């Protein structure tokens, strides 16, 4: 043994006490090993159990929603023979090709003619009451597409009234069930286009999700346009520029608390500030978006700060050392590396905002709105609010519409999460 | 003593981290034509002093520098000194290789781009090639300039970082233990490289390796507990140290 630079001096009695070599094969040792394996196994099983339970809940939810909701996308139709020559509508094929076609069709009394045809064809089964309120609109559209229909008999599949529709899908009243049985082969099924293109209605067969979907899209647009830049800029400022002192500590605590505030409180705030003080229009996507932006901003700030903080300081040093200015360091190096985290946080915040109902109820987006909004200041509703409103309806036809609307919301959320995953993979850089 | 003109002069420099007095009254001249080595036990303040030469200490909260540091006679802590330009003129290579997670080309081209050093793509290409050649990396990477800089080996990454520093045409290059994360072969390459770069740039290198300091430097400064104990020609320091503490350190009886 070579002479050590540092002489060895015993420091305690324990060091010189006799030392028993470890017996790795003793009974106690083997028991310990067995216990360790058992603990590992138990832990793994518990984890597996937790995963199975949560996946089970999710599957249950999805199955129930799809089982009920898919019927919301389907409508029952009855085949109606029509002959518009008898109705004396005063319409000619020429007038329908001209510019005044819509006006001419609106005033021609088509609705009465369709009702009369139904009364004739299904006198015993209920006549015009079989048809949905909006059935004549299909006739109008057909005639508009093909004006020659005015001059000859034809048949058209028209949507039935809600009670018959529900019965045809196996959930109706005994009377409606009998009607369905009597109609038999006259009934058929098709895609409920009104559901995908229309807005709210008091008649379940005419109620559509497009109005609420568009309301949600406009609201999300406002939320994103406000919360994303403000949130990311705040995060950059707090991480890169703000001095560390009492004020910024306080700000940090406030932001963290804001992220945990119940959403209805933001609704109250929106009501007081945007409607009460600023007198913005009620029920508008603009106000809904502003309110949800308040709620989403802290989430984006927190996620962005974490993402920015996760950028290795060595990258910052490297950029500074070649003479990058602080802004260049942030925009050329920190932000690109933090982008996946920032985008993921943003989309999680947006997804939460998309599903939010309470604050929108507070600012009046629960009104009955029969037309899809065109501008940010038009009265509108949003998907979750629409679901809430429909779930409250007594008419049985709305049960499946509610589930169908939930499906639309889930698809929207899935799409957003898909975008988040795509962006994360797209921008992910390793170092 | 060599009699080259000083490129950087530091006089009576003190650096504090909050209440921690990390550098005490250090005065030193860095010469244009020389490689200057800073040696001393861990925690004695070599990195701290090095970082005060290109004001990287500015980025550390609580760090404070007093005294006078001049580059070509200009006070680098003066109000009218632009830090960004200063850091381009006084480049830095870090202990752990830290290439940007971008392509090899982008790593080298970044500095010239932000400082507008190239008027055209062709000129930028030339700068990149010249920098990589000077860093002794061109032949190894010329066919894969678009690969990520982080995919290179440790030694190649460190030479890439040197190329990146060279690309902005600095006057001084500060290297903080540039070989401590490298194997002996990569270390030898870097030492060769420093040898080749000598004269073109004033080079300051922090090292824990006495042999390395003896091999690459003309001047050596020995730091201890935040103080500059001895500064002189490398040959004198290693063969004939005037201070007892320097002698203890370089003979390994210490630290
Ligand atoms: N970022 C920092 N913040 C606070 N103290 C620091 C920091 N960096 C270094 N120090 C302190 O300054 C002293 C010198 O450190 P350093 O310059 O890293 O020494 P060396 O590079 O010689 O090992 C040490 O006491 C260290 O704890
Ligand atoms: Mg150091």
Question: How would you summarize this macromolecular structure in one to three sentences?
Answer:
The complex is a heterodimer of chains A (431) and B (255). Chain A is built from 18 helices and three strands.
Description:
The complex is a heterodimer of chains A (431) and B (255). Chain A is mostly helical and 431 residues long. Chain A folds into 2 domains: 70-191, no CATH class; 210-427, MetI-like fold. Helices cover 63% and strands 5% of the residues of chain A. Chain A has 18 helices and 3 strands. Chain A has a 3-stranded antiparallel sheet with strand order 2-1-3. In chain A, helix 10 packs parallel to helix 13 and helix 14 (313-321) runs antiparallel to helix 15. The longest helix of chain A has 43 residues, at 27-69. The radius of gyration of chain A is 33 Å and the shape is elongated. The two termini of chain A are 45 Å apart. The model of chain A has no long low-confidence stretch (mean pLDDT 87). Chain B is of the alpha/beta class. Chain B has one domain (6-250): 3-Layer(aba) Sandwich (Rossmann fold), CATH 3.40.50.300. Helices cover 36% and strands 26% of the residues of chain B. Chain B has helices spanning 46-53, 83-89, 104-114, 121-134, 138-141, 154-167, 184-197, 210-216, 234-239, 244-250; strands at 6-17, 20-31, 35-39, 63-71, 74-75, 90-93, 172-176, 202-206, 219-224, 227-233. In chain B, helix 7 (184-197) links the parallel strand 7 (172-176) and strand 8. In chain B, 45% of the residues are buried. The mean pLDDT of chain B is 92. Adenosine-5'-diphosphate (ADP) is lined by residues 17, 20, 22, 40, 42-48, 60 of chain B.
Determine the fraction of residues in helical runs of chain B and give it as a percent range.
25-40%
Distance between the termini of chain A: 45 Å
CATH architecture of the largest domain in chain A: Orthogonal Bundle
Q: Biggest interface in this structure?
A: A-B, 22 and 28 residues
Strand order of the largest sheet of chain B: 6-7-8-3-9-10
Total of helices of chain B: 10
Q: Main beta sheet of chain A, described?
A: 3 strands, antiparallel
CATH topology of chain B: Rossmann fold
Name the quaternary structure. Answer: heterodimer
Give the helix proportion of chain A (percent range). Answer: 55-70%
What Rg of chain A do the Cα atoms give? 33 Å
Mean pLDDT of chain A: 87
Please state roughly what percent of the residues of chain B sit in beta strands, choosing from under 5%, 5-15%, 15-25%, 25-35%, 35-45% or over 45%: 25-35%
CATH class bucket of chain B: Alpha Beta
């Amino acid at each position: 043994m070579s002479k050590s630079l540092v002489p060895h001096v015993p420091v305690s009695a324990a060091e010189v006490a006799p030392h028993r070599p470890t017996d790795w094969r003793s009974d106690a040792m083997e028991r310990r090993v067995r216990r360790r394996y058992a603990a590992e196994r138990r832990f793994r099983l518990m984890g597996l159990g937790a995963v199975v339970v949560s996946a089970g809940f999710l599957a249950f939810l999805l199955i129930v929603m799809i089982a009920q909701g898919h019927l919301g996308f389907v409508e029952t139709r009855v085949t109606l023979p029509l002959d518009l020559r008898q109705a004396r509508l005063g319409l000619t094929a020429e007038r329908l090709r001209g510019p005044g076609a819509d006006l001419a069709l609106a005033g021609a009394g088509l609705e009465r003619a369709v009702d009369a045809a139904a009364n004739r064809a299904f006198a015993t089964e209920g006549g015009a009451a079989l048809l949905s309120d909006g059935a004549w609109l299909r006739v109008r559209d057909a005639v508009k597409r093909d004006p020659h229909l005015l001059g000859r008999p034809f048949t058209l599949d028209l949507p039935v009234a809600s009670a018959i529709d529900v019965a045809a899908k196996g959930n109706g009243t005994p009377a409606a069930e009998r009607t369905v049985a009597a109609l038999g082969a006259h009934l058929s099924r098709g895609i409920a286009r009104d559901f995908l293109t229309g807005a709210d209605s008091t008649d379940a067969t005419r109620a559509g999700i497009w109005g609420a979907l568009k309301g949600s899209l406009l609201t999300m647009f406002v939320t994103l346009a406000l919360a994303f830049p403000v949130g990311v800029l705040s995060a950059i400022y707090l991480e890169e520029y703000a001095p560390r002192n009492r004020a910024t500590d306080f700000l940090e605590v406030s932001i963290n608390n804001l992220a945990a505030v119940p959403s209805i409180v933001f609704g109250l705030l929106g009501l007081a500030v945007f409607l009460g003080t600023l007198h913005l229009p009620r029920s508008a996507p603009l106000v809904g978006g502003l309110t949800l932006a308040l709620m989403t901003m802290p989430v984006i700030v927190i996620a962005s700060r974490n993402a920015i903080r996760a950028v290795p300081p060595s990258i910052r040093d490297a950029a500074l050392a070649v003479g990058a200015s602080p802004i260049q360091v942030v925009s050329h190096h920190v932000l690109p590396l933090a982008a996946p985290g920032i985008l993921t946080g943003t989309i999680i915040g947006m997804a939460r905002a998309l599903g939010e109902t309470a604050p929108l109820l507070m600012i009046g987006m629960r009104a009955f709105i029969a037309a899809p909004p065109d501008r940010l200041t038009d009265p509108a509703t949003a998907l979750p609010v629409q679901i809430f409103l429909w779930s409250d309806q007594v008419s049985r036809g709305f049960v499946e519409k509610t589930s169908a609307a939930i499906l639309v919301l889930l698809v929207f959320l899935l799409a957003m999460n898909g975008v988040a995953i795509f962006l994360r993979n797209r921008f992910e850089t390793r170092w | 003593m060599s009699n080259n003109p000083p490129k950087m002069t530091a006089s009576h420099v003190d650096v504090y981290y909050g209440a921690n007095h990390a550098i005490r009254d250090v005065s030193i001249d860095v010469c244009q034509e020389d490689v200057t080595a800073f040696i001393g036990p861990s925690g004695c303040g070599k990195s701290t002093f090095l970082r005060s030469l290109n004001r990287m200490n500015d980025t550390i909260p609580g760090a404070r520098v007093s005294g006078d540091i001049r580059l070509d006679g200009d006070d680098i802590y003066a109000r009218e000194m632009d830090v960004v330009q200063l850091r381009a003129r006084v480049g830095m290579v870090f202990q752990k290789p830290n290439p940007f997670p971008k392509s090899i080309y982008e790593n080298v081209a970044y500095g010239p781009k932000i400082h507008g050093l190239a008027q055209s793509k062709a000129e930028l290409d030339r700068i990149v090639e010249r920098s990589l050649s000077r860093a002794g990396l061109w032949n190894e990477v010329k066919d894969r300039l678009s690969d990520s800089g982080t995919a290179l080996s440790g030694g190649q990454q460190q030479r890439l970082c040197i190329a990146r520093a060279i690309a902005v045409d600095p006057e001084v290059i500060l290297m903080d233990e540039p070989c401590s994360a490298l194997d002996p072969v990569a270390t030898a390459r870097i030492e060769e490289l420093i040898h080749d770069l000598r004269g073109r740039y004033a080079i300051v290198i922090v090292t824990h390796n006495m042999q390395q300091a003896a091999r690459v430097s003309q001047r050596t400064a020995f730091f201890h507990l935040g103080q500059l104990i001895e500064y002189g020609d490398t040959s004198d320091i290693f063969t004939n140290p005037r201070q007892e503490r320097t002698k203890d350190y370089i003979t390994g009886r210490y630290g």
